[in-house]
């Protein structure tokens, strides 16, 4: 076990020794719709806050892996029941590809990756549900596109739009029978702070 831990730490240190580092924070609106099998729902507007660390790969810095901590509010209106309000926290490791040269001030990008979130608070019609009514861990996917514009040697402004979807139901069958998955659109603006490795 000690050898495995040592190997993983050594590998991580070796990789990051030749990497470029990016810290980024973004926030924006999320437009969510809970898909139920037998009941009509309407899309609601929530918010999304994201704090990420990027590991940049390649000589031209075209690819990177971004590990993001997320705070997400998802809202949807369920017919004849009322407003659904879910607050989630989680982590999203995303693979990002950037277009253009590494020193371009304007760069477009696309990213995709899985998301792992915990339902921290669930309310229907302003009443909080017991944790037995919903899944505690929700696995999904995130797919986005956007651009960044340098505003100095260390900062970028980022704009991103995209979609999120759940792979598992949010509610237990005892509470809501059938499918109960979210599909979301999001739009957010953020700031990215860059720290470059001095050896590159």
From TrEMBL:
<dbReference type="InterPro" id="IPR011250">
    <property type="entry name" value="OMP/PagP_B-barrel"/>
</dbReference>
<dbReference type="Pfam" id="PF13505">
    <property type="entry name" value="OMP_b-brl"/>
</dbReference>
<feature type="domain" description="Outer membrane protein beta-barrel">
    <location>
        <begin position="6"/>
        <end position="193"/>
    </location>
</feature>
<dbReference type="InterPro" id="IPR027385">
    <property type="entry name" value="Beta-barrel_OMP"/>
</dbReference>
<keyword id="KW-0732">Signal</keyword>
<protein>
    <submittedName>
        <fullName>Outer membrane beta-barrel protein</fullName>
    </submittedName>
</protein>
<feature type="signal peptide">
    <location>
        <begin position="1"/>
        <end position="19"/>
    </location>
</feature>
């Amino acid at each position: 076990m000690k050898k495995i831990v040592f190997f993983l730490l050594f590998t991580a240190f070796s990789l990051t020794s030749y990497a470029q580092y990016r810290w980024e924070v973004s926030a924006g609106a999320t437009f969510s719709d809970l898909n139920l099998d037998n009941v009509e729902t309407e899309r609601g507007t929530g918010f999304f806050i994201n704090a990420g660390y990027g590991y940049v790969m390649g000589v031209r810095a075209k690819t990177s892996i971004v590990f993001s901590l997320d705070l997400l509010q998802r809202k949807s209106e369920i017919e004849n029941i009322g407003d659904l309000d879910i607050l989630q926290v989680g982590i999203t490791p995303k693979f990002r590809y950037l277009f253009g040269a590494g020193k371009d001030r304007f760069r477009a990008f696309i990213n995709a990756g899985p998301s792992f979130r915990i339902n921290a608070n669930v309310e229907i019609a302003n009443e909080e549900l017991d944790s037995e009514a919903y899944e505690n861990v929700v696995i999904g996917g995130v797919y986005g596109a956007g651009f960044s514009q340098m505003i100095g040697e260390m900062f970028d402004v980022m704009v991103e739009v995209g979609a999120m979807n759940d792979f598992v139901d949010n509610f237990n069958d005892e509470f809501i029978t059938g499918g109960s998955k979210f599909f979301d659109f999001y739009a957010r603006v953020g700031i990215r702070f860059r720290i470059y490795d001095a050896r590159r």
